[in-house]
């Protein structure tokens, strides 16, 4: 059974003007699709083809001989997670349980935003910034390339993609502007709350 490109949870123009349909046509239609295609080529005719994405990621993490498998599986999972982290004009609606945890673990919602922006902007080269739960605490982290909290025993709540392909068509080199728009206009806190409820 082949891996499939998961449908976007919104229309390609649903995030305009913050993320253009043009950007999504490449980011989802070309980049995300390419990771799915590569993963299918790497797992074809192998027992891996019937494993879950999560099991492939955990089973290949840290194994240099499986870097291609990890990178493509990780990027499929990370992009699925990123699309779910986005919802237009919902960023100021933080469910109470998340707001309480942000205040407890960061000091304030603004302190969380500052920490998240700092992680996203300082990730050198391609990668991701995350809000995660680890040891019962909300934390901000960043990962390079295809790396993912799933490979580190961490439970992700939100992510922003800071590969250049995520923002270059709309923001050119201005990654800080893209990250600010994500935090001010695009965070899907309902998804983060669902994920928090699933945290062990
Ligand atoms: Mn991307």
The general outline is: globular
Instruction: Report the oligomer.
Output: single chain
Main beta-sheet annotation = 3 strands, antiparallel
The number of domains: 2
**CATH top level label of the largest domain:** Alpha Beta
Strand content: 5-15%
- Order of strands across the main sheet: 2-1-3
Low-confidence stretches: none
Quick one: CATH superfamily of the largest domain?
Answer: Iron/manganese superoxide dismutase, C-terminal domain
Q: How many separate helices? A: 8
CATH architecture of the largest domain: 3-Layer(bab) Sandwich
CATH names the topology of the largest domain as minor pseudopilin epsh fold
Ligands and ions found = manganese (III) ion
Number of strands: 3
Layout of SSEs?
Layout: H1 21-43, H2 53-60, H3 67-84, H4 96-106, H5 109-122, E1 127-134, E2 137-144, E3 155-161, H6 168-171, H7 175-186, H8 189-198
Helix pairs in contact: 1-3, 2-3, 4-5, 5-7
Q: What is the structure about, briefly put?
A:
The chain has 200 residues and is mostly helical. The protein has 2 domains: 64 residues, Orthogonal Bundle (Helix Hairpins); 104 residues, minor pseudopilin epsh fold, CATH 3.55.40.
Could you characterize what this model shows?
There is one protein chain. The protein has 200 residues and is mainly α. The chain has two domains: 21-84, Orthogonal Bundle (Helix Hairpins), CATH 1.10.287; 96-199, Iron/manganese superoxide dismutase, C-terminal domain (minor pseudopilin epsh fold). The chain is built from eight helices and three strands. The protein has helices at 21-43, 53-60, 67-84, 96-106, 109-122, 168-171, 175-186, 189-198; strands at residues 127-134, 137-144, 155-161. The protein has a three-stranded antiparallel sheet. Helix 1 (21-43) runs antiparallel to helix 3 and helix 4 (96-106) crosses helix 5 (109-122). The model has no long low-confidence stretch (mean pLDDT 97). The chain binds manganese (III) ion (MN3).
């Amino acid at each position: 059974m082949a891996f499939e490109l998961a449908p976007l949870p919104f229309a390609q123009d649903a995030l305009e003007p913050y993320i253009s349909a043009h950007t999504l046509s490449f980011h989802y239609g070309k980049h995300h699709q390419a990771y799915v295609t590569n993963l299918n080529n790497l797992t074809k005719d192998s027992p891996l083809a019937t494993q879950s994405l999560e099991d492939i990621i955990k089973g290949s993490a840290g194994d240099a001989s499986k870097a291609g498998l990890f990178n493509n599986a990780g990027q499929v999972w990370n992009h699925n997670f990123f699309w779910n982290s986005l919802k237009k004009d919902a960023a100021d609606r933080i469910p109470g349980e998340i707001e309480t945890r942000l205040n407890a673990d960061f000091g304030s919602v603004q302190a969380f935003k500052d920490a998240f922006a700092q992680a996203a902007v300082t990730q050198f080269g391609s990668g991701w910034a995350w809000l995660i739960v680890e040891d019962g605490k909300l934390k901000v982290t960043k990962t390079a390339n295809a790396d993912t909290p799933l490979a580190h025993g961490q439970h992700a709540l939100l992510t922003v993609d800071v590969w250049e392909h995520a923002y270059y068509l709309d923001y050119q080199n201005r990654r800080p502007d893209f990250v600010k728009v994500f935090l001010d206009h695009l965070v899907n806190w309902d998804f983060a709350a669902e994920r928090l409820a699933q945290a062990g």
